[in-house]
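Lecture 7 notes: from sequence to structure.

We start with a single chain of 1432 residues. Read the sequence below before looking at the structure.
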Amino acid sequence: MMRFYLRFTFFIIVLTANPKLIASWDDDETPMTFNGNYTPSSPSPAPAPAPEPESSVSCVDELHGVGSLDTTCELVADLNLTRDHYISGKGNLDVLPGVRLVCNVPGCSVTVNISGNFSLAENSTVIAGSFRLAADNADFAVGSAVDTTGLGGEPPSGASGTPEGVEGAGGGYGGRGACCLSDTTAKLPGDVWGGDVYGWSSLEKPEVYGSRGGSTSNEVDYGGGGGGTVAMEVLGHVRLNGSVLADGDSGGVKGGGGSGGSIFVMAHKMEGNGRISASGGDGYAGGGGGRVSVHIYSRHSDPKIFIHGGSSFGCQENAGASGTLYDVVSESLTIDNENKTTFTDTLLLEFPYHRLFTNLYIKNMAKVAVPLRWSRVQVQGSISLSNGGELNFGLARYASSEFELFAEEVLMTNSAIKVFGALRMTVKVFLMLKSRMFIDGGGVTMLGTSMLDISNLLVLKESSVIQSNGNLGVHGQGLLHLRGAGDTIEAQRLILSLFYSIKVGAGAVLRGPLQNTSTGGLTPKLYCQREDCPVELLHPPEDCNVNSSLPFTLQICRVEDITVEGLIKGSVIHFHLARTVVVRSSGTITGDGMGCKGGVGTGRYLRSGIGSGGGHGGKGGSGCYNHTCIEGGDSYGNADLPCELGSGSGNEESTDSVAGGGIIVIGSLEHPLSSLSLEGSITTDGESPRKTLKTISSNTSLGPGGGSGGTVLLFLRTLDIAKSAILSSIGGNGSLKGGGGGSGGRIHFHWSDIPTGDVYHHIANVKGRVFVSGGLGASEDNVGEAGTLTGKACPEGLYGLYCEECPVGTYKNVTGSDKSLCNLCPARDLPHRAVYVTVRGGVAEAPCPYQCVSDRYHMPHCYTTLEELIYTFGGPWLFGILLVVVLLLLALVFSVARMKFISGEEVHGAATTHHGSQIDHSFPFLESLNEVMETSRVEESQGHMHRIYFLGPNTFSEPWHLSHTPPEEIKEIVYEAAFNGFVDEINAIAAYQWWEGAIYIMLSVLVYPLAWSWQQSRRRLKFQKLRDFVRSEYDHSCLRSCRSRALYEGLKVAATPDLMLAHLDFFLGGDEKRNDLPPPVHERFPMPLVFGGDGSYMAYYSLQSDDILTSLLSELVPPTTWYRFVAGLNAQLRLVQQGKLRSTFRSVMRWIETHGNPALKRNGVRVDLARFQTSPSSSCQYGILVQTIVDDVALNETEQQHPWGVQIDNTSGGDLRENFHFTQSPSSSMNHFRHRDCGEIIDIGSLQFLKEEKDVLSLISFLIHNTKPVGHQDLVGLVISVLLLGDLTLMLLTLLQLYSISMLEVFLALFILPLSIIFPFPAGVSALFSHGPRRSAGRTRVYALWNLTSLVNVVVAFVCGYIHYHGSSAGKKIPYLQPWNISMDENEWWIFPGALFLCKVLQSQLVNWHVANLEIQDYSLYSDDSELFWQS
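Now the structure, written as tokens:
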């Protein structure tokens, strides 16, 4: 570009200094000559301007125009010229539309040198042999033309552009003229041509004429004239919409076409859609194209430029060669034949010494040749071949030259490069699309090796081919990619090296040697008879150079990653200094049939032509004919490191002989392959005869054997063979006429750096098929022997072909691959509950590593946590003894602490006793007057009016409630309407919310002790609210007494300790002023007294005798007698069990008749067991009916006055009138029990019809129930302490045992029922260390509930253990678990849960005794002797 600016500046200065300066062009050019050293002469400088003529033609006189050349000259009429014209001036020159300037004399020159503008209007024409223009601007309108076609003068002297002879060949200039051969047997179309090229040195500014075409006659010259010259140097811009022509003239059918001329255009800017042409003329043989050069700084809407050769009428497929188009600004050379097929070349000369082109374009069927020996084609940019373009180096018949090609890029699209000789190509990018490169090294005698050095990218696409019949090295630093089907790189010996990655696409081919190479040219023949291995196969050179002495026919060297989806085929294939090789499912690396036809293990032949199979890895199959057999080829080679070619059938001269398999070597001893991934196939199979098909003709006697398999030698670190992959080296099949099958070849895995120990990883993952079998024959006797499949000797701990870890339970302490080297581990070293484990890298020595069968077992003995604890203390027996001793000692300490704690409490409690010691020790605490809540102080009974019992057992489903109708006894002291309001408020307070019952139901299902505690807490809260309401919140407005309303007195609420029975007492206020109130006690009889409780374990039946009741009865019965009676009755009621009322009430009734009534009758009182019910839908309550007995008459009167079955209407029995209905039968003969009627005195006859109601605890009453005291309270407490500690210990041991199974079992044992297995111990401790018998007894009962509930958890633990030790173990075998090592521990799993269950059962019985000892301290209460009972 700098040269352009310098020249352009110089041109402006010259024209400015001398406007009339005219450059002079000579018609002739000095012929091109060469020095002795083939150095061409220096290009001639541009012709110096000719001296200005004395006078220029005149606008008016000579040109017949209008105006002046110094202003504006307009040519208005046609002008025929007969000589050269020089037109010069300072103005403009305009050729008006339709005006023609014609000079038909060949070589006639028209020169225009003006300072102004030049214009050629529409349809105007300038015709001359040479047209030269120098102007400020130039305009060529549509239809205008500057035409020098066929008017060229004589070409330069010494040029050979005009053909000789009478062959009618075309003329040559920029390209050779065509020549039509009449005899194609002696010469090829490409060997002959017409006129030759010249003018190569003036590419930048062509200025010579084209050459004339040849003639087909000696008498008449029919050849077309050569094209003229056109040179335009314009300072400004050129607007070209017309035509600038320098074409060769047509020679017709009898003469050759003339070659194109020269066109040079120099301007600052050019635009338009016109035409520039220096094409060859048509003729019998077309003329060659001319030369065009454009020196345009700015080009817009480029005119079409044509430089093609002329068409040949005599040989239409061989047009004249293309001329040249040179762009001075871009320094690019274009050779374009406009899709005219040709065998004629456009020559490229003097490349080594010419200024470098930037780009070279060969397109549209142009054929370019570099004919000189030792030539170099070098450009700064790219070489582009497209649309049938062809670049040839050297001559086909003289392939003895070496050529060099240097460029940034070589881009080929549907084109070809042919090299006759050797090629050294150095580019950065080489892209081929539907293209072909053929390198002919001259046949067998090869001058050298061709090298393609592509530094960045080499891509072949859509059946592109690189082929060499010699050695070919392809080097690069980037990517080599054969995209798909038909893309091929093949050579006699092919070396691919230094690429970062090579990818052979599906259908693509890498091949070496060539597929159609003659037998003598096969490289493997060089060492077919060698029994030793060529050292280069094991230790290849690292330089990756092409060397004919090496045994490889195809080598891929120093390539990081190789991906094969197509075909790689060769005789000796080697992958060297590669990192990874991946063979996809469609990919194949093969040496099938590429080995020797003879070889060391060649087959043998009978005279009949039947042959045996070739040998290699085994012996070849015998060949048999008419019961005559011949042995197969011998086995040869080293199985541990094979590197031999397979042997053929022998008889190499026969066309029916077959070859053995080739060699595939991947990696080397020093540089193994990092990873081989095989999804397709790697094969070196022996070849089979072509006549092994069943269609073999019966008239031939030839039956060769099959070739033996070759060698696959893999130097690897890791291998992955997919399920669809095939790795084979099998023998070829023999002829069906009796030929023997070839033996299998050899496959060897030579592992490198096999990791051992902790760094071991699997080096092979083989799922596909590996074959080394022999080939088939006509019968089983003709089958070839199998080959060998070997691997490198494995280190200690590993075995097998792929060096895998020895099987679990074995060890290997020697080097080798045989599985028998893996010895069984000693069974005595394996603990029970242990299995041998896989160790990374295998086991190299005994003892073998093992692990416990579960994480719950602990190394090294695989004991459970429980067993570890047991064996830490010397084993089961010693542990058991120590455990018992520790429990006894702890129990003693526990009991001593308990006694100290309780004795201190008793000392402090003795000071608060209000009764004598005899009463305190004679009566249980349940009879204490203080046990009735809200009656801690002695109430005055004189004011007591009436007692109403609350209906209902105070449960969530049936809470306490009162009837709205006031009894007759209190109607005189209450306002009935206000009483109803009072009852509503009481019932509302006593009612429970729904969620309270819902919580109780859920807790009853999950944790019953908590449900009981929840119920008691809600009962206590309800009672507290009732008491607070009656005591302080209620205004007593229902009472008539003013004093009672003012003092908030007259109403008292009390309840039994179990909070199941409550009553409301009414008192007089003292201001009633009635003497008949309150009624005397004898008027209150018969008096019903209701039992508290419901007969369950937690709330047994009991009679509560408070101060009011005692005071009322004291008028008839002494208090001590009544206290004793109540104590004895309660002692009997403790033994009554819900669900067993019929049997347990019998003893109560017997005691009343034997112990109670005899003593009470002395005081005129009798009691009977009775039941009470206000309505059929309400619950039934039990109690006693107290009545007076004066004498039998009085009794009869009472019976008559108060017949049972009706409501009592006298005042003595009216206190429960509204509450109960009952039927009286003093004697059994008078009793008649109605089953559906509830409310009667219970006797022996009606007892059997009692309705039994059972709860949850009644179902297991054999474990938890109230019993008689047994005494020995301290001993019982000690035993309970021992069992309680034992319970804790066994619970922990059981959970520890379950933990050895799994955490799930522990979770199940703990949470079915939730945590019930844990709470018995804290509940028991709380019970044993409670203050006072009453509190201790209550907490002991809760402890009993927890103990009973925990049995469910124990059963769950038992079931979990059973399922684990019997269910799962029976159907699941532990691998490598030695059956003779299993101890009896698994069979004794039930001991701890069983012992825990037994411990809890024993605790239940002892707790029953302990509760009885606490609640009944006077054992005479259960005395059968009534006198003893009343004396105590």
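The chain is about 20% helix and 25% strand. Keep this in mind for problem set 3.
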